[in-house]
C-alpha cells in the first residue's frame, strides 16, 4: 500500500512538471506574438519579467505540491512500517488451577505472638533484698506474736524428764499446733493481700507491689497461692531461695520464679 502511494505521488509530480513546461511555452509564444502599445513589437525585457513571474508562481505551486507529496509519502511509510511490525509475543500462560493466583500481599499465616516485656513499667524498679526483708518483718512479727499467745493460752510446750528407772520421757506433741496455726494464718494473709490488694501490708508500708511478669498487673489468687507454696519451699533449705533475691538481676526469689512474679517499687 505504501509503494502504490509513492508511485502515485511520483506520477503526479511528473505530470505537473510537464504541464508547467507546456504553460511556460505557451506564455513565451503569447508574449512574443503580443504587440506592444503603439503597434510595435513587445519589449523583450518586459517579456522576460512576465516569464519570470509566471515561472516563480508555478515553481511555488510545484514546491508546495512536492511538500504535500513528501508528507503523504512519510505517512504512508509510517503506516507500512506499523503494518509490517510483527505483534509482540504472547505473555506467559496462567498458572495451573491447582495453585492460587499470585498476589501482592504475603500469604496469611499465624498471627504474630506478642511477648510481654519482663521489665518494670516506667517509674518503677525492682525491689531489692533488704527492703523486702523489712516488709517481711512487718508482716511476720504481729503474726508471730499471735502464735506465741496461742501457745501460752493452750499451755503447750515441749519438755523431757527422767523417770525413776532412769529412762528419759519426752512429751508435748501439741506444742506444734500454735506454730502450724501461725503458718496457716500467714499463708491466708499473704494470699489474700497479694491477690486483692497487690501487696501485703508490710509491702504497702514500704511502697512495694507484687506484679505479674507477663503483663505487669496484679496477680490473681491462683498465682498468689503458688507464690506462697514457693515461699515455703524456698525457706526450707536455710532460706536459700529467699536470699537468692539479693543476687538475681531481677531481684526474684525462688518463689517469684515459680509463680512468675516480681516485686517493684517507685524509683
TrEMBL record:
Residues 75-84 have a biased composition (Polar residues). Residues 85-105 have a biased composition (Pro residues). The chain crosses the membrane at residues 177-199, 225-247. GO terms for cellular component: plasma membrane. Residues 31-105 are annotated as: Disordered. Residues 126-260 form the RDD domain. It is a multi-pass membrane protein. It comes from the Bacteria. It is found in: Cell membrane. Keywords: Cell membrane, Membrane, Transmembrane, Transmembrane helix. The keyword Cell membrane applies. PANTHER family: MEMBRANE PROTEIN (PTHR36115:SF4), PROLINE-RICH ANTIGEN HOMOLOG-RELATED (PTHR36115). This is RDD domain-containing protein. It comes from Candidatus Aeolococcus gillhamiae. The lineage of its organism: Bacteria, Bacillati, Candidatus Dormiibacterota, Candidatus Dormibacteria, Candidatus Aeolococcales.
Amino acid at each position: 500500500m505504501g509503494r502504490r502511494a509513492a508511485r502515485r505521488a511520483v506520477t503526479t509530480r511528473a505530470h505537473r512538471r510537464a504541464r508547467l513546461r507546456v504553460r511556460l511555452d505557451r506564455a513565451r509564444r503569447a508574449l512574443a506574438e503580443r504587440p506592444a502599445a503603439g503597434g510595435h513589437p513587445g519589449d523583450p525585457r518586459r517579456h522576460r519579467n512576465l516569464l519570470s513571474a509566471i515561472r516563480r508562481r508555478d515553481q511555488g505551486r510545484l514546491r508546495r505540491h512536492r511538500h504535500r507529496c513528501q508528507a503523504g509519502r512519510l505517512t504512508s511509510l509510517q503506516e507500512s512500517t506499523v503494518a509490517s511490525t510483527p505483534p509482540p509475543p504472547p505473555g506467559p500462560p496462567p498458572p495451573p488451577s491447582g495453585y492460587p493466583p499470585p498476589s501482592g500481599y504475603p500469604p496469611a499465616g499465624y498471627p504474630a505472638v506478642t511477648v510481654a516485656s519482663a521489665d518494670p513499667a516506667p517509674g518503677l524498679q525492682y525491689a531489692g533484698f533488704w527492703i523486702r526483708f523489712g516488709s517481711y518483718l512487718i508482716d511476720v512479727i504481729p503474726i508471730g506474736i499471735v502464735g506465741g499467745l496461742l501457745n501460752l493460752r493452750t499451755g503447750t510446750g515441749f519438755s523431757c524428764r527422767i523417770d525413776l528407772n532412769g529412762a528419759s520421757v519426752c512429751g508435748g506433741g501439741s506444742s506444734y499446733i500454735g506454730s502450724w496455726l501461725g503458718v496457716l494464718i500467714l499463708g491466708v494473709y499473704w494470699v489474700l493481700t497479694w491477690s486483692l490488694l497487690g501487696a501485703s501490708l508490710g509491702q504497702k508500708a514500704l511502697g512495694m507491689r507484687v506484679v505479674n511478669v507477663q503483663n505487669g498487673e496484679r496477680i490473681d489468687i491462683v498465682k498468689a497461692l503458688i507464690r506462697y507454696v514457693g515461699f515455703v519451699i524456698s525457706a526450707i533449705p536455710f532460706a536459700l531461695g529467699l536470699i537468692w533475691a539479693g543476687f538475681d538481676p531481677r531481684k526474684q526469689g525462688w518463689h517469684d520464679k515459680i509463680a512468675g512474679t516480681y516485686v517493684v517499687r517507685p524509683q
